[in-house]
Amino acid sequence: MALSGLKSKPKGRGNIFLTYFLMFASIFLVTFVVLGTSLIILVNKYAIDEKTNLLRENTQSIAKNVSQTLIVNNMNSDYSYEKEVICESLLVVSNCIDSDVFVCDNEGKIILCREQVGISPYYDASMVCDKHKKFKVKDNLIQRVFEDGNAFASITIDNKEYYIVGTAIIAPTYSHGENDIIGSVFAIVESGTTELVSSVLKIFIIVAVICLLAGCIMIWLLTKRMVTPLRQMSAAAKSFALGDFSYRVKISSNDELADLEYAFNEMADALDKLENSRRSFVANVSHELKTPMTSIAGFIDGILDGTIPKDKQEYYLKIVSDEVRRLSRLVVAMLNMSKMESGDFEMKRKNYNITDQIIHILLTFEQKIEKKNIEIRGLEDAKPYRVNADADMIYQVIYNLFDNAVKFTNENGYINISLSEKGNFIEVSIANSGEGINKAELSRIFERFYKVDKSRSLDAKGAGHGLYIVKMVVEMHGGRIWAESNSENEACFIFLLPKAK
Asked: Are the beta carbons of 75 and 109 closer than 8 angstroms?
């Protein structure tokens, strides 16, 4: 039966690699389409401007030639030598600019065209071919020529688009007035794509295809590079869910993605370390709970069934009492640790004399100190130092440090206590003779559930959380704690607490 808290994977899950690839490829494609369209429009406009300017220059030249050759009474389609010369000019110009150039009268009727040149040896007929006889320039173009001296428009002939440019023919013998325009010269050219535009379009398409292919390859490589670490992280997360924290993401770059990979590996290291601590904690706590509980059960059963004589019962009941207190301290320490980690633990700060507190706590270890013949140093001339702290919490700190010091001090050894002012803090140092702490373990000594001496962990009465709680309490007060071991025969714990104001 499936657990209600677990969510199944959504169906139809997308592919981030394909999504990013298509997104970037679409951006590339749209960009090239926009650039290509803009380029073609600009080139086409340039080509049209060049073409119309060329038509306008040639129509102006022909208009000037006609105005110098013909008079208003001769603006018709009858043959004359002068008109034959003009028609030949129309033929030459039309072939040169690839257009159709002709002359119109003021009504828009064509009177001279290029088609009749060379058809008959004697121009006894009209100077206009049958095709041009049927064509008439629209009145609005003629009106524009009269008003502005020139005209430009787009027209449709037989379902084809054309550009038409016109220039007025001005009689030189007239002054500026109503009848100084005696006709007009028009040039027509197809508005289809020019060779320039076609060439530019072909080149652009070739370049665009090459760039798109190169861009798609680069996008594919980039998205693959981005997605690969994510896939590795996904695989690692699945491995973590199964309890295997050995998987690590390969770091192959030096950017923001590498920072994420590095942070992920650091998280994996922390999880691995926490899992190892948890397993060690379970093993240690199991032992710590099992040993006293077995002793308690054994002693009580011995008393109940008469195995232990009555004269020895008080002795063993004291042992049972000690074991019960040790279990109580273990449970209380674990509860306090949980409260401090969750932020539910409330401190009750006050100004008090920490020197008196140290002496008082030291007296609770009097029997153990005398049993091991430990010399206490540094308290002969100890001055009173006042701190601002929670007395009960600091009591636990000092008690744990003295408990460790007494526990690991050698027979006939010493414990040295010193207090001093360090700026706004009071520094407390507790050093003991005996086996020192190697440098590799100094950095881990305050980790949760960590025990320095693995060989003595089964004998030491603790689960490895005492120093972790000590560190938490000191730091909650705004202080700092650290351990030093400059030789193989001494260990020293130093902590700072805020000085009373």
From this structure: no
